[in-house]
Design brief:
Low-confidence stretches of chain B: none
Order of helices and strands of chain A: HEHEEEEEEEEHEEHEEEHHHHHHHHHHHH
Structural class of chain A: alpha+beta
Bound molecules: zinc ion
Distance between the termini of chain A: 85 Å
Largest sheet of chain A: 9 strands, mixed
Radius of gyration of chain B: 21 Å
Strand content of chain B: 5-15%
Radius of gyration of chain A: 30 Å
Number of helices of chain A: 16
Oligomer: heterodimer
Mean pLDDT of chain A: 91
Strand content of chain A: 15-25%
Largest sheet of chain B: 11 strands, mixed
CATH class of chain B: Alpha Beta
Helix content of chain A: 25-40%
Order of helices and strands of chain B: HHHEHEHEHEHEEHHEHEHHHHEHHEEH
Largest interface: A-B, 30 and 45 residues
CATH superfamily of chain B: Amidase signature (AS) domain
Distance between the termini of chain B: 24 Å
């Protein structure tokens, strides 16, 4: 297969209009699976979280997990959807070894939530409304591990191992309507949407939404039409997009690839493609000779889901403050400019700062620590900010020590470094590294007197009322105390000793 | 002594066990001996679990000896379990090669209830593969023979359970009824078979044929025995979403009331579309005689019409295969059951296994159902069939406004010779003409012996149909008719069963 011709991105958006569509699967963090009582813990030994139902054993039957329905309704409500008063599950029939029944139980054409929207803010503050077509419930499949063979794919593998722990874990699939008119910002809109959806679902507490662990997975649909033509092009569906950055890159790559195909006068193939994390490209999935016919029909083993209006309203009452509401409140409470808020959000620091504030720190201090010093540390270490080994409570304690004068800023950074190095709680680091500010006036007075004696001309100026000259003496004292003195107190003592 | 025990009804046997005149172990052993003697000819059982049966019976005896009240009205009574319900201590094959030797890791809810009730499970009975068939000839393990005439079929799919009763190998059995698989074998073997209201008995652990039609139910030689068993296996099960969350109808009380012989005030509807043309003469004669008997008991007999029943068979043969095609997809050699290691890929192994593991009738229905659900055909086939289903439900509702129960012959003919229809699926399907509407509507029905046909001496059945959860009146009518019939004959119907002769 020849490498696709890629068109330069700027050139693509000069001549084509992209249309986006995003399908996001979210694994719910319910205690039990969608249709049985098995636990859903991630990372357990293979095939230890299974039972007759999720193994699809003959005779077994599904029972709908009420907590999953509840989570689905809450997601639907948070996305401004209408909740269907009645709906059936359907069977999606196809053979695959990681699917125990060889059909997937899914809501298909009677989804629990329809017709909503999510407002998404881009980096520069532009707001884009993404229309939601539907959110529906379904069950996850198991996992296959293909062993032997070069690619880790089923073809060429010597044998395959199957783990059914994930089979039957509840999924919510959230599907957008087509998103037109994003132009050059299509990649950014896609990423911002997935980010906003992740934050929203996290705030509902119904999923870990960890893309790296697969509890949130994104399929990107993209098509191009000649600029201004309004003719919808053929779309590709890219699966396996497993990070926010990849969402952006997948859209960008597919736009360049589609343009290359269209420029060559060829037709875009309607197909499923797989995103390649290492190269930021997509590759074609297996082309099927016949189009897949899933032979959907209503699941006869389940009764329809019919949430009462009262229940839906009760659930609406349980919705927490949603991310955009929270951001508005925080902006006001902390008196942030739009730019400051955006920096905070873009640095993924909002939750951390808020938690630090909750632990007793002033918002300004908390913000400055997370956005500057700690962001640098995260960068250096190549980890996400929230993966740094320091908790908001620990940082709040450091800030408290500064406020009470027990630490100055320089020492505080050393304490934070100690915590990051795993040396224990801030107070333990202070003790073990001997970082407390010298607050014993006796020791300081001795150091001040020594410095004044060493620079008699400066001492004279101060005594003559030139208080500004004290800076040189402060510097000398700080040097002598290895930075552990409280500079403000030192200045006071200098003036006192000089009788100025 | 041993031989006598096999001739008793379940209620009589339970009585003797509970007053400790007979031990549960003796009862079990008597039936195991009977199985050893006749099952070589009848082939009702696919598996006999003698050891487990005797162990279970021993527990009942120990408990009674300790002065504990019996776990249920049928504690200690032996039972034959259709091989479609899962059992941890016995294989569950569903009459198919694809599950040969499969030992389920869990008990069906019905199995658990039987165990909790202290009932002795003797073994698993033969059936048409995956319950698809009306003669038990489609079992992958060979046909069951009708104890009335070993050259004839015992009906199906539950021919094993019905034959076990008629051959006195067990006084109780469990069947499952998707389109008549309990009632038609009951009619063919001169026994009693009940299809409860859909959702009345848990389907958890019942290996699915067609999920929206399957229903497990009691089989026995008397109406009272069926009622006693019905109350034990019925009731809501949180493991089955389609199970009804309502008390089990008081069928034992109803059967006892019926046996007193008074049906005054009960309206019995004769379904015009389920009599006459196409019914064997002796079947029709016995049906007419049964109607006269019901009138004598004080029932008011009226004629009702169910115009859409004529489309029932066609709708059934679209809905059932559709569900079958999906339900049977799981038999893919990946996790359990047969595996034919032919070919390098998972797909090739799946295909080879399904080719070798499924019999012709099962394949026929999988293909039919796959086709009926295919895009472009769904509305014309599955969609239309569902509409017919709705119309049949309305026919029933209208009929039950005029009558408390409806009656018809259970099957159009008596038992036919083995091999007669095995190559003619359409002729085979016609057997279930009268029983299918009940499954499509999710209502209840039973078959009670209505004598033997004059022309061939083989048993016929009276079908009594009731509305959903209306089993009480159905049992009352069944028990009243049974008592009157026995009084007229001078002995219980079962005593007329000929001795099994090879
Ligand atoms: Zn499970």
């Amino acid at each position: 297969m020849t490498a696709p011709t890629l068109v330069d991105f700027d050139d693509v958006v000069d001549r084509y209009d992209p249309t986006l569509g995003l399908e996001v699967h979210v694994e719910l963090s319910t205690n039990t699976k969608m249709f049985c009582g098995c636990p859903t813990t991630f990372g357990a030994e293979p095939n230890t979280q299974v039972c007759p139902t999720c193994l699809g054993l003959p005779g077994s039957l599904p029972v709908v997990n009420r907590a999953a329905v509840e989570a689905a309704i809450r997601i639907g409500l948070a996305l401004n959807c209408s909740i269907a008063p009645w709906g059936r599950f359907a069977r999606k029939n196809y053979f695959y070894p990681d699917m125990p029944k060889n059909f997937q139980t899914s809501q298909y054409d009677e989804p629990i939530a329809v017709d909503g929207h999510l407002d998404v803010t881009l980096e520069d503050g532009t707001s884009v409304r993404v229309e939601i077509e539907r959110a529906h419930m379904e069950e996850d499949t198991g996992k296959s591990l293909h062993v032997g063979g070069a690619t880790g794919r089923i073809h060429g593998a010597e044998y395959s191992l199957l783990d059914y722990n994930r089979a039957g874990v509840p999924l919510i699939e959230i599907v957008t309507k087509m998103i037109p008119g994003t132009g050059a910002r299509a990649p950014e809109v896609a990423r911002a949407y997935v980010t906003a959806l992740r934050d929203l679902i996290r705030s509902l507490g119904v999923s870990d939404v960890r893309m790296d662990q697969g509890s949130m997975r994104c399929d990107v649909n993209l098509s191009l039409s000649p600029k201004g033509s309004g003719i919808l092009g053929t779309r590709s569906e890219t699966k396996n997009v497993n990070s926010l950055r990849s969402v952006e890159r997948a859209v960008r790559y597919e736009m360049s690839r589609h343009a290359g195909v269209l420029d060559a006068g060829e037709k875009v193939v309607q197909e499923t493609r797989h995103f390649q994390e290492d190269t930021a490209t997509t590759r074609s999935g297996r082309i099927k000779e016949t189009s897949e016919d899933y032979r959907y029909f209503p699941e006869p083993d389940l009764v329809p889901i019919a949430p009462s209006a009262e229940w839906v309203e009760e659930l609406r009452g349980t919705l927490p403050e949603l991310p955009w509401e929270r951001r508005a409140r925080i902006q006001q409470e902390w008196q942030l400019s739009d730019a400051e808020l955006r920096d905070l959000v873009n640095a993924d620091a909002l939750d951390l700062v808020a938690a630090t504030v909750d632990a007793g720190a002033p918002s300004g201090d908390a913000r400055s620590w997370w956005v500057s010093y700690l962001s640098q540390q995260a960068n250096t270490r190549g980890v996400a900010l929230d993966a740094l080994p320091i908790t908001p409570a620990q940082l709040a304690r450091v800030i408290e020590l500064v406020t009470t004068g027990e630490l100055n800023n320089k020492l505080a950074r050393q304490v934070v470094d100690g915590v990051l190095e795993g040396e224990g709680e801030p107070d333990e680091v202070v003790a073990s590294r001997g970082l407390a500010v010298v607050s014993d006036d006796g020791a300081l007075i001795a150091a001040v007197d020594e410095a004044l004696a060493a620079q008699p001309d400066v001492a004279e100026k101060i005594r003559g009322g030139k208080v500004a000259a004290a800076g040189a003496i402060v510097g000398a004292v700080m040097k002598a105390t290895k930075g552990q003195a409280d500079a403000k107190r030192v200045r006071e003592l200098i003036i006192e000793r000089c009788g100025a | 002594m041993s031989d006598d025990l096999t001739r008793l009804s379940a209620a009589e046997l339970a009585e003797k066990i509970h007053v400790r005149e007979v031990s549960a172990v003796e009862a079990a052993q008597a039936h195991l001996d009977r199985i050893a003697a006749v099952d070589g000819d009848v082939h009702a059982f696919l598996h006999v679990g003698a050891e487990a049966a005797l162990a279970s019976a021993t527990l009942v005896d120990e408990s009674l000896a300790a002065g504990t009240a019996p776990a249920s009205a049928l504690a200690g009574v032996p039972l034959a379990l259709k091989d479609v319900l899962t059992t941890t201590d016995m294989p569950t094959t569903v009459g198919s090669k694809i599950l040969e030797g499969w030992r389920p890791p869990y008990d069906a809810t019905v199995t658990s209830k039987l165990r909790a009730a202290g009932i002795t499970i003797l073994g698993k009975t033969n059936m048409d593969e995956f319950a698809m068939g009306s003669s038990t000839e489609y079992s992958a393990y060979g046909p069951t023979r009708n104890p009335w005439d070993l050259d004839r079929i015992p009906g199906g799919s539950g021919g094993g359970s019905a034959a076990a009763l008629a051959a006195f190998e067990a006084p109780l059995a469990i069947g499952t009824d998707t389109g008549g698989s309990i009632r038609q074998p009951a009619a063919m073997t001169g026994t009693v078979g009940v299809k409860p209201t859909y959702g009345g008995v848990s389907r958890y652990g019942l290996v699915a044929c067609a999920s929206s039609l399957d229903q497990a139910g009691p089989c026995a030689r008397t109406v009272l025995d069926a009622a006693l068993l019905h109350e034990i296996i019925g009731g809501h099960d949180p493991m089955d979403s389609t199970s009804i969350d309502a008390p089990v109808p008081a069928v034992v009380e109803a059967a006892r009331l019926g046996a007193k012989g008074d049906l005054s005030g009960v309206r019995v509807g004769v379904v015009r579309e389920l009599t006459g043309e196409g019914y064997q003469a002796g079947v029709q004669e016995n049906f007419d005689a049964a109607l006269r008997e019901l009138e004598k008991l004080g029932a008011e007999v009226v004629e009702v019409s169910a115009p859409h029943f004529q489309y029932g068979l066609a709708a059934y043969y679209l809905i059932l295969p559709s569900e079958v095609s999906s339900n049977l997809a799981r038999f893919d050699a990946m996790r359990y059951g047969l595996r034919v290691d032919k070919g390098a890929s998972a797909e090739e192994v799946m295909a080879a296994t399904r080719e070798a593991g499924f019999g012709p009738e099962v394949k026929r229905r999988i293909i039919l159902g796959t086709y009926a659900l295919s895009s472009g055909y769904y509305d014309a086939y599955y969609g239309q069939a569902q509409k017919v289903r709705t119309l049949i439900g309305r026919d029933f509702a209208a009929a039950f406004a005029q009558a408390d129960v409806l009656v018809s012959p259970t099957a159009p003919t008596t038992a036919f010779p083995i091999g007669d229809k095995v190559d003619d699926p359409l002729a085979m399907y016609l057997n279930d003409l009268a029983t299918i509407p009940t499954n499509l509507a999710g209502t209840a029905a039973m078959s009670v012996p209505s004598g033997v046909a004059a022309e061939d001496g083989l048993p016929t059945g009276l079908q009594i149909m009731a509305p959903a959860l209306g089993e009480a009146v159905m049992y009352r009518v069944g028990a009243a008719y049974e008592a009157a019939r026995d009084a007229a004959d001078g002995s219980p119907f079962a005593s007329r069963t000929p001795e099994v002769k090879p």
